[in-house]
Amino acid sequence: MAPTSKPSQASRAPGSCRRAARLSNRHFAPQRPKSNIAALHSTNSFLDEAKAIEGQIVITRRRIHARPELAFKEHRTAALVAEELRRLGIRVETGVGGTGVVGILEGDPQGSVVALRADMDALPLREQTGSEFASKKVGVMHACGHDSHVAMLLGAARILANHRTNLKGTVKFLFQPAEEAAEEGGGARLMIEAGVLEKPKVDYIFGLHIFSNFPSRTFALRPGPIMAASGTFRIRIIGRGGHGSAPHQTIDPVFVAAQLITALQGIRSRMVDPIEPAVVSVCSVHSGTRNNIIPDDAVLEGTMRTVNEATKRRVASLIRGISNSVCRTFGARCEVELRDAYPVTVNNPAVEKEAFRILSTIPGTETIEVPPLLVAEDFSFFLRKVPGTYYFLGTRNESKGCVSPNHSSRFKVDEDVMKYGADSLALLAFEFSGRNAR
Ligand SMILES: [Zn+2]
Ligand SMILES: [Zn+2]
To answer: Among residues 74, 366, 377, 415, which one is catalytic?
Structure first.
């Protein structure tokens, strides 16, 4: 999940932009010139408004953090969201795709419709941050920062609601359930099936994720694929058990599992283009009951990640082929289950280019281009239907102890960055609602 390059914290001039490092793993791009765009937008009134409501954004985030809810169970969070949207005079729909909430802020009907999305679910993890607003639910924690996503999007809704009279289009606020529930297909797909991209039809969509890999106040994005496709596999190796002292009378599935784990790594190292991102990880191995019994079977489970759908199909077929061949070589059989989770998250290049420019104007932040990350997201389903952009907001801050990665029981958000996140969402919606998409 780690990116391959670490952005520096060098320039912090108002809205500095750095088409940093690489356009892809294959090409090095020249540093994007710092245009005078930053100067043009040096007075960003939305940021002033975000700063004015920063306290409320933080309080909202802490309230949600203390009462985390797992995928598809975000009832309390959804109620909080709906109440706040109604208070702002925004039309609200609840129960969308399960616990999802949609807010619709109507401006000029001639303008474009922009959707902003925040995911709401927490993870099954026991929090160990020791913070004063730590989770009050044992075994459930907002360890991926979705609490901050909800708070930032409500902050953006507040800013935009204050500007409804000069809003050039319509903004839809999508509060989505179950991003973390990849095995169940995730919440984005359910919201799409419930019709959130229609009536009015969404022209552009944006999503933001807080991310510990990047320094605080850094926006990170790229055109094209930004996150991986994910899939899971489960391989049952069927041997023939017997006595530990006489392996020749058995077909030892533990031995075969060891060969297979090693062979599967040949996919990444020998069979996929070395400059094409791909991961095959065996993450669970189960077999046997005691030290002198060769068991009948062994089960391996793992994940695969690629940023290209064709590579994903190839990796999946190689997992199946290698499993069958290795097992056959040693007289065993196998059952291979491959399951798709989320597709590649692909930013629309034209929208990303404009979003990058807009983010670069936000004072006190830095906007950088990053290589694709091998995390996966169900925001990918939205981007298959609507042009848009997914971007990260860094939250790594050593001086505040915000150093543990997302999904760690010690993950902490640098709350000072949330005002920039709220500002960025409001700004993108405001600017794109004035663009003619039809
Ligand atoms: Zn996560
Ligand atoms: Zn997440």
So the answer is: 415
- Report the pLDDT averaged over residues 93-105: 98
Residue 97 belongs to some domain of the structure: yes
Which ligand neighbours the alpha carbon of 1 most closely? 1
Strand, helix or coil at 35? Answer: coil
Residue 266 C-beta-side C-alpha neighbours within 13 Å: 12
Which H/E stretch holds residue 284?
Answer: strand 278-287
Band (pLDDT 50/70/90 cuts) for residue 183 is: confident
**Integer Cα distance of 22 and 329 in angstroms:** 43
Active site residue 415: yes
Pure H helices in 307-348: 309-329
Range of the domain at 272: 229-340
Ligand 1 center to 207 CA (angstroms): 14
Cis upstream peptide for 3 (omega within 30°): no
User: Domain boundary at 340, 367, 401, which?
Assistant: 340
Catalytic residue from among 179, 180, 342, 420:
342
pLDDT at 36 over 80: no
pLDDT confidence tier of residue 381, bands split at 50, 70 and 90: very high
Q: How far is the CA of 141 from the centre of ligand 1 (A)?
A: 11
* End-of-domain residue from the set 296, 319, 340: 340
What CATH number does residue 277 fall under? 3.30.70.360
* One domain, residues 137 and 98: yes
Q: Which residues surround ligand 2, an ion (CB under 5 A)?
A: 144
Structure tokens at 229: 């496709």
Helix axis angle, 253-266 to 309-329, nearest 10°: 150
